[in-house]
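Course assignment 3, question 2. Fill in each field.
Student: A.L.
Task: Predict the tertiary structure for the chain below.
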Amino acid sequence: MRRRQLLAVVLIAVAIITVFGVRVKVLRIYDGDSQERVYPVLYQRAVHGETEVVLKWKHSVTKQYVTERFSINRNNGFDVVEMIFNEHGPNLPNGPESGTKWEVKDGYFRVYNYDLTFDQLPVRIGQVIARHIIIFRGKEILLNELDEPGGYVIIQVQDVTLFEFMKEVGKIWLRNTV
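Answer field:
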């Protein structure tokens, strides 16, 4: 009988240590327009060693897709890897600058060799034309399905406890089912 009690106490202790002690690296998308004190998490997914995050959006003037590729660094920031587009437009690079390199191939401009890192990726979701998509771990996340067109989201990578991760899973589920 005492052995069972001891085993139960040990199992409970291991469970508590696991839930509150184990940390998970998570990509989160926050509602940046929220008036709440803490921005609500709209989406989260464990990183699991994946380092590539792609932001794809339709340019409002050229009506063509622009692809921006980022790599998650060890400080949970986003290193800019490359930008690919097939037509020049406002707010797109028009030539090499700050050490970037350009390549034109199969009708696409590829800008790479960036020396640029962001702590977070702020995105204003297009209202009419721009269709913003995050591609992470093989899944396309349509930002206009997480928040309304014109909304503002913040994309971050954070180290959180397993408990914090599970708590946000529950909040997201409740928000989407109620």
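Instructor remarks: DSSP finds three helices and twelve strands in the chain. The radius of gyration is 20 Å.
Grade: pending
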